[in-house]
Amino acid sequence: MITYAVGDIHGCFDGLRLILDRIAAASRGEAARIILLGDYVNIGPDSRRVLDLLIDRPDITALRGHHDAMLLSAARGSAGSLWNFEFHGGDATLRSFGVTEASLIPDCYLDFIRRGLWRYAEDEHRVFVHASIDPAITAMAEQDDLTLLWAREPLRQDADTFGRYVVHGHWPQADALPEIQPHRCNLDTAGCATGVFTCGIFDDSQADPIDIVQLR
To answer: Measured between alpha carbons, how far is 45 from 182 in angstroms, rounded to an integer?
Structure first.
């Protein structure tokens, strides 16, 4: 089966729709897996439309990103979480919902972020996460959200990834070029800033991408 992994969206509905349309055309009705690598809200103008699409597409494996976690924390109302959310583009998310506070976002959206987004995805050759993994923990279910969603630095090339390739986003590439390494790839090409959205294509013939598609 072909797997399509898509980097961070950040409220850019048109970019996400463009990529999903291209995937539909490329798969031509064949079974395919679509994995989105997190961060659906903040920065871009259409966070609500992005979440509406994801709610309507349960066939898509949507991972949770740290911006999505920020929204949940802000909705709970702690002062530090509110500042963090607003500083990282949360005002755009509030405008998309027509509200002035994260706590006023309808519960159905908060529940979807809380229960409908995955911490990680995996297959025989790869693990898909928002940010990174702890290479000392081989069972993905035991990985900590602090690493999966909030890692402070990319996984080093000498890290033991327990025999699997790591596919992630989280670190926006200002040059709009995906970062392809022997042990991992970063598909976050800062689409809301650069206008370039990136999709990695994978199959069972090799662990790393068989192709990278960029759309603008």
So the answer is: 35
Dist. CA 44–CA 42, nearest whole Å: 6
Q: Are the C-beta atoms of 3 and 32 separated by less than 8 Å? A: yes
What is this structure's pTM?
Answer: 0.94
Query: Residues 124-150: pLDDT tens digits?
Result: 999 999 999 999 888 999 999 999 999
**Cβ partners under 8 Å of residue 98, min gap 6:** none
pLDDT digits (tens, 9 = 90+) for 44-63: 999 999 999 999 999 999 99
Main-chain dihedrals φ then ψ at residue 187, nearest 5 degrees: -100, 10
Distance CA 149, CA 131 (A): 5
Q: From 2.60.40.1520, 3.60.21.10, 3.30.70.360, 3.90.550.10, which CATH number describes the 11-124+134-215 domain?
A: 3.60.21.10
